[in-house]
Design a protein that fits this description.
Beta-Lactamase; 896 residues; 5 domains; alpha+beta; 28 helices; 50% helix; 6-stranded mixed β-sheet
């Protein structure tokens, strides 16, 4: 319905001449209207302000007149109430006498219209005057009975307000009525009031109107105020108002407007006469511009106006020429950019069999001849046969339904070269209603190749070529989704190399990376050996030394166990890496779907828990997840949570185990051992909470607390004369790496005043592996403070005699694992003897821990061991038990 109306409006066009004439006439008309409206509006505003001022003045004057009227009447009425006659009649307190007095007063005073006597309760007892006025006086009621009226006034003590002279104001018959209520007293007792009432003259309001300059009248208060009307004061039941009208001024304004209208019509006629020659002077330049525009529309991009005019038309012509220059330059740049970006444009009228193709599109598709009109069949013939159906469907939907499309597909050139192109198209409607499909074709062959490389980088581990964590998550989701459809189980093997960090720290990251690649190859060998027993297994490196294997659609559970066993065996085989004989091991946790959860997160949690148990049970093993493992994991989580508050809560305790000279049986030192008894977890093994503290980073705070406690205890023993032997304290590798141990010890020794030689710090070999030079520098600084240093658990790690002689240590501590069978095993005896000999060559004191019987003690003494430590003499005891232990050991010898 709207289209015919729009077409008819677009067909109705005005010439330039008509538009200029209409514009000038409109300007003249508008000027006339403004000339008429503005002065009239200002004059009307001035008159209105003057009228408002007059009304305010009249209202004030009327109020003043009213107050004067009331004041005069009050003076007269008060004078009447004080005459001897009035007072004598009042003393009688007789109602008939008072009534007669009222009638005489009205007769003597023509201005009085009513006199009313009321008792102390405000009830009328005697009156004279007009009945209508008597019934209208406010504040006075008739007596309830003739006996009450006949009783006359009754006196009562004076109350607040009784002495007030009250004005009376109301209206009746369109006239003002004023009066005065005067209090009456007999012997200082209030007996009532006398009210004098006067009705104004009929011409009073007219007189006020003349004096105030506005109309003064009584009006119904229910009627709304007019624009030029003000309320002066309520006069029940009416209201006193003032009003004003400026009809004369309005007539003068109308005459002025008529004169200005005549002048405007004259100006309109002059404007119309000038519009014709002005419009004709503009048509010539416009015709030239239109002719040039027609040539440009027909494709003549070289057309320029080259105008020599100096007016605005000349400026427009110059601007058009500049615009054409920029357009031509932009078109050239666009064609060059399309060639660089391999982007070609195309256009096709819906229903036609040819396509208008740009030069770049023809170059992409290999059409070197035939101009810019290319048959649609030829273009479809270039599309790869496998992509042709999708290409045709996209075109058909665009033609029929106007659906835009963007499609990546392949094209095959005459020389069999295969390209990947991105084709876009959308349907547009021309002004004449013609439907066309316009679009682009871009050669994206190189981009697709790069995208594939990026995808490989995004989903593949750069070191091993295995799938990464991201691909693992997607593969696991797909495997679970397939398992939900086929109801076949899925197994996930989570693998972590044991002590891989030690390999990295001792042999370097290059060797570590080579080891990871070897592990990846061995995992692929194991998976390939599965053959047809498991469909599409995948291997992934999750990061660091963590790997995962997904085994979907398992037919036999023994396949999973055999696979895990084979992985443990293969990885456990030694390998030569740059001359180093490296032997790795792996701990594997296994979880299955749907047993361990219905989602990927549940499987991973089960794998991690099972792997933790494999490591805890000795490493180099595999474990299937079991529900009972959850309790261990939950205990570890509770332990981690409780550890945060245990330090501040005072739940840790330091106990002291003596170090004894096996020859003299004298205590030559103590080792501080940390114990933790939690109110919920009970006694927690140091192997558990120390490792956990290192994992969570709380070892720094815990280690500092232990050092402070030991320094305090050593000072107390020294001051009390209990013992002067040194106390050894284990320090973590994290304390050395954090580079805070030196500052902490300096502060503690300064605060306590303890001789540094009273403290011995025990460090393990692993604490020195990550940054050996920095660790040795820290140890030397501690040594320079005067502290004793000891190498703990020698021989249990990657011991090296090369760096052992560089360490600034005073003692070497042999782990208990070396002496368990020292009495019966000749090989163990030879090994311990060799270690002690090395220590002696290096000038180190030798301490052996874990000694439990006399035979071990005697043999170690014979080998040259300096100090022994173990249950043979004492377990770790509280600080207050140390004096007793000292006396027992040095007096009685070993514990029986």
């Amino acid at each position: 319905m709207k289209m015919p109306v729009l077409r008819s409006l677009s067909a109705f066009r005005l010439s330039v001449l008509q538009r200029i004439a209409i514009s000038l006439c409109a300007i003249a008309t508008l000027s006339t209207i403004l000339a008429l409206a503005a002065p009239r509006h200002r004059l009307a505003e001035d008159l209105e302000r003057a009228s408002q001022d007059r009304l305010e003045h009249a209202a004030a004057a009327s109020l003043h007149f009213l107050e004067n009227l009331q004041g005069a009447s009050r003076q007269r009425h008060q004078a009447m109430s004080r005459t001897p006659e009035f007072l004598a009649n009042l003393e009688t307190a007789d109602v008939p006498t008072l009534s007669a007095l009222a009638e005489r007063l009205i007769a003597r005073e023509p201005s009085l219209d009513a006199v009313i006597f009321s008792n102390s309760r405000g009830r009328r007892i005697a009156a004279a005057g007009e009945t209508e006025i008597l019934s209208s006086v406010p504040g006075i009621t008739r007596g309830r009975s003739e006996s009450e009226c006949a009783a006359g006034p009754e006196g009562r003590p004076c109350r607040r307000g009784d002495r007030e002279v009250r004005p009376i104001l109301f209206s009746t018959e369109g006239r003002l009525v004023v009066g005065t209520s005067v209090p009456l007293f007999i012997r200082d007792r209030f007996i009532g009031r006398v009210t004098f009432v006067e009705k104004s003259e009929p011409t009073l309001l007219e007189d006020w109107s003349r004096l105030s300059g506005a109309r003064v009248e009584l009006s119904d208060p229910a009627e709304s105020l007019a624009e030029l009307e003000r309320s002066v004061r309520p006069v029940p039941p009416l209201e006193l108002r003032v009003s004003h009208s400026f009809e004369a001024e309005q007539a003068a304004l109308d005459r002025l407007s008529a004169m200005m209208l005549i002048a405007g019509l004259f100006a309109l006629a002059v404007a119309y006469g000038l519009s014709v020659p002005l419009a004709r002077s503009l048509l010539g330049p416009l015709a030239e511009i239109r002719a040039a525009a027609d040539r440009i529309r027909n494709g003549d991009r070289a057309t320029r106006l080259r105008s020599d005019r100096t007016d605005e038309f000349g400026s427009v012509a110059d601007a058009i020429d500049t615009m054409l220059d920029h357009l031509e330059s932009s078109q050239t740049r666009l064609e060059r950019t399309q060639a660089i970006g391999r982007i070609g444009g195309w256009c096709r009228v819906v229903g036609e069999s040819v396509v208008e193709a740009s030069a770049e599109l023809r170059a992409i598709l290999g059409f070197s001849e035939g101009g810019d009109q290319v048959p649609m069949a030829s273009i479809e013939g270039r599309v790869h046969p496998e992509d042709r159906a999708a290409f045709r469907l996209a075109l058909e939907r665009c033609e029929e339904f106007g659906l835009s499309f963007a499609l990546d597909h392949r094209v095959v050139l005459d020389d069999a070269t295969e390209l990947v192109v991105h084709t876009q198209g959308e349907r547009v409607r021309e002004a004449d209603g013609t439907l066309r499909i316009e679009g682009i074709v871009q050669d994206v062959t190189e981009r697709k190749r790069v995208e594939e490389q990026v995808r490989t980088l995004a989903f593949r581990d750069g070191l091993t070529g295995l799938g990464n964590r991201r691909l693992f998550a997607e593969s696991l989701q797909r495997a679970i989704g397939l398992a939900q459809q086929t109801l076949s189980p899925v197994a996930v093997l989570f693998l972590d190399l044991d002590d891989f960090k030690v390999v990295n720290d001792t042999l370097g990251h290059t060797i570590g990376d080579q080891l990871l690649c070897v592990v990846a190859e061995r995992l692929m060998d194991v998976v390939e050996e599965l053959g047809d027993v498991c469909e599409n297994p995948t291997i992934h490196r999750l990061g660091g030394d963590e790997f995962a294997i997904i085994l979907p659609q398992i037919a036999d559970w023994s396949v999973v166990a055999n696979c895990a066993r084979s992985i443990v065996d293969r990885i456990g085989a030694s390998v030569d890496l740059d001359g180093y004989d490296v032997q790795a091991s792996a701990s594997i946790g296994i979880a299955t779907w749907p047993d361990e959860g219905l989602d990927a997160e549940g499987l991973l949690t089960g794998c991690d828990t099972a792997m933790y148990h494999a490591k805890r049970d000795g490493r180099g093993q595999y474990r299937f997840y079991e529900p009972s493992m959850r309790a261990v994991s939950e205990r570890r989580l509770r332990m981690e949570t409780r550890l945060r508050s245990a330090i501040e809560g005072g739940e840790f305790e330091v106990v002291y185990q003596p170090k004894v000279d096996p020859r003299t049986r004298r205590v030559e030192g103590f080792e501080a051992l940390l114990r933790w008894r939690d109110r919920d977890l009970g006694a927690v093994s140091p192997d558990e909470f120390v490792a956990l503290a290192e994992e969570t980073g709380q070892i720094l705070a815990l280690g500092e607390w232990v050092l402070r406690e030991v320094v305090r205890q050593a000072r107390d023993w020294l001051e009390a004369g209990v013992t002067e032997v040194p106390i050894s304290v284990n320090v973590s590798s994290m304390q050395i790496e954090a580079n805070v141990l030196l500052d902490v010890m300096v502060e503690m020794l300064r605060e306590s005043g303890l001789p540094p030689a009273q403290i011995e710090l025990e460090v393990t070999e692993s604490a020195l592996l990550r940054d050996r030079s920095r660790a040795i520098e820290t140890l030397r600084s501690l040594k320079n403070l005067g502290l004793r240093l000891s190498l703990d658990d020698f021989g249990t790690g990657y011991s090296s005699l090369g760096y052992l002689r560089c360490l600034p240590v005073d003692a070497m501590k042999i782990d208990r694992s070396f002496i368990l069978d020292i009495v019966d095993n000749e090989q163990d005896r030879a090994l311990v003897r060799a270690i002690i000999s090395i220590a002696k060559v290096l000038g180190l004191e030798v301490v052996v821990e874990g000694v439990e019987d006399e035979a071990q003690c005697d043999l170690l003494a014979e080998m040259g061991c300096d100090l022994i430590q173990g249950f043979l003499y004492s377990e770790g005891v509280a600080a207050e038990e140390v004096p007793e232990i000292l006396g027992r050991i040095e007096g009685d010898g070993p514990v029986a």
